[in-house]
Each structure stands twice: as C-alpha cells, then as structure tokens.
Automatic annotation (TrEMBL):
Short name of any one Pfam family annotated for the protein: HTH_TbsP_C
Domain (Transcriptional regulator TbsP N-terminal) ranges: 24-159
Domain Transcriptional regulator TbsP-like C-terminal: from-to ranges: 160-281
InterPro entries, per the entry: TbsP-like_N, TbsP_C
Domain of life: Archaea
The name this protein goes by in its record: Uncharacterized protein
C-alpha cells in the first residue's frame, strides 16, 4: 500500500480532491470532528459551484456528503455567509449535511479515487496522509458512508444565500442587495467574534443608506426566514439609541405613516461598505466613544 504525506494549506488540501471529483466517480465524502476541516470543505464546495456557474457549465462536484458532530458543525457555520451559502448548496442538492454525536470522529476525505486524513495546523496549513490504493479507498468509503447514512440531517437555521439576495433586490432595491452582498463578502465580516453586529443590523444600515422603508425590510426579513418583524424593529431601536439610525415619516393613503430609514451620521453614506460595517461595530462596542 502506498501512503503519501501531504503538507499545504488546509483549503488547498481540501480543494484538490473535491475539484477532481467533478470529472466523475463517486460523490465526495467528508467526515470530521474538526470545525476547521468542515468549514474549509463548505467554502471549497461553494467556491467550486460558483466557478462552475460562472463558466456556464455543470463542471462541479456531485453531492458532497459532509458529516460531523453538532458542536463542530455549529462552529463551522457560525459565519453567516458560510451558513447561507451552505443552505444554497443543500437546496440545489450539491450538499448533504449530516450530524453524528461522536466527538472522536477522525478527519477523513474520500474523493476522486483518493482517501485523505487531514490534520489542520495552527497556522492555517495542514498535513495529511493520502492514498489512492483502490482497496483501501473503497474500504474507507464504505466504512464512513455508513456513518454518514446513520447521521441526522443538520439544520442550518439560515435562509439560502441566493434567495436572500434575490428577494432583497425585489423588495427593497438592487443597490441595497448589491451592498448587502458586499457586506457579507467584506474582509471585515458582518458577524464578528464580539457578536455586536450581525446580518440584520447590516441590512438595516444599508437600507438606511439607500433610504429604504422599515416596512419593506421587515417584510423581506420575515418572508425569507431571516428574522421576525419584532426582531427587526428591536434592532432598529437599538441602532437608533446609539446614534447610527434615524427615521422619517412617510405618508400613506390609508393607515398610519410608515418609517423611512436614514443614517443618523450622513458621512457614513459615502464610505465603502467595509468601512460602514467597521464604523458601526465600533459604535456598538463602545457607544460612548461616538
């Protein structure tokens, strides 16, 4: 049996076999109790699916079966964009997420006629043992396919990324949609480790920058399953209280006036999306510093 040591970045180590699986063969299978392995696999599958869509072909891996313990999957999907993109992949049958209550589960990736056992390092690299010995690969796939099949479906609890943006554009406007997508993709992530600002806050701030109505954003958030109207209203009041948001009344033909969202600090209307997210987070962390 030939076993080869591999050392490179964890992302590249995961990318190679999953990308190679697009050429045919069995669907990729990944099991791990390590959140880093699960997270990079999710990002790899999303990136490969995006690249295939951009090229206008179906040259993407089949349904990737991914399995881990609940706590590891929770940690792997704690960043909103990763979770929302994973929800996209589940809806399009590109991803099957399963969970098993086994924190000792080893990290194993089987794809494109190869089995790997990756071990992430603290600096973002990873080492792995890899083999393409057909008997070994078959035995590993069979053993862990049974583990995945016995697992429960993992529920992400977030709306699919493409539906989130599509309905935001329809309900609120294309500019807000594009800026919200940019915020989710920004180097300064929307949902940070301090949990001071998340995707709901970002949608409100970007809606305010584009003078959207609170009613429109609330309708969108509730219809896609992002947040209830009550949650959106509560977040709006919090952003008002720290001096980030303000509202204007909008007259209607029937009923009470609606509220138009505006930025309380007009200077934030012209900054980049990343700078807006960064500024809002700093205010929420220390309101007195404003």
């Amino acid at each position: 049996m030939s076993v080869e040591p591999v050392a490179e970045s964890l992302r590249r180590l995961v990318d190679h076999p999953i990308a190679a699986a697009a050429d045919g063969g069995d669907d990729p299978l990944v099991v791990s109790a390590d959140a880093a392995v699960l997270r990079e696999t999710l990002r790899s599958v999303a990136s490969l699916a995006d690249a295939a869509a951009d090229d206008g072909d179906d040259d993407a891996p089949g349904c990737v079966r991914l399995c881990g313990p609940p706590a590891a999957l929770d940690a792997a999907t704690d960043e909103f964009r990763t979770a929302a993109r994973a929800a996209d992949l589940v809806e399009s049958d590109r991803l099957d997420l399963r969970t098993v209550d086994d924190r000792t589960l080893p990290s194993v990736l089987v794809a494109a006629g190869r089995a790997l056992a990756p071990v992430p390092l603290p600096d973002g690299r990873a080492v792995a043992l890899s083999t393409d010995e057909s008997a070994v690969v078959s035995a590993v796939r069979t053993a862990f396919a049974e583990t995945v099949a016995a697992g429960d479906r993992y529920r992400l609890g977030v709306p699919a990324y493409s539906r989130l943006l599509e309905e935001l554009g329809s309900e609120v406007g294309s500019t807000t949609r594009e800026e919200f997508a940019a915020a989710l993709d920004a180097p300064v992530t929307v949902r940070g480790p301090d949990d001071t600002l998340d995707e709901i806050d970002a949608a409100l701030l970007l809606g305010a920058r584009n003078r959207a109505q609170l009613y429109e954003l609330s309708e969108w958030a509730e219809s896609v399953g992002l947040a209830s109207r009550a949650t959106v209203s509560s977040r709006k009041r919090r952003l008002e209280a720290v001096g980030l948001l303000a509202t204007e009344k909008v007259a209607t033909d029937v009923g009470r006036p609606r509220q138009r969202l505006v930025l309380a600090d007009e200077s934030l209307a012209s900054v980049g999306v990343s700078d807006l997210v960064r500024a809002a987070r700093s205010v929420l962390v220390d309101p007195g510093a404003r």
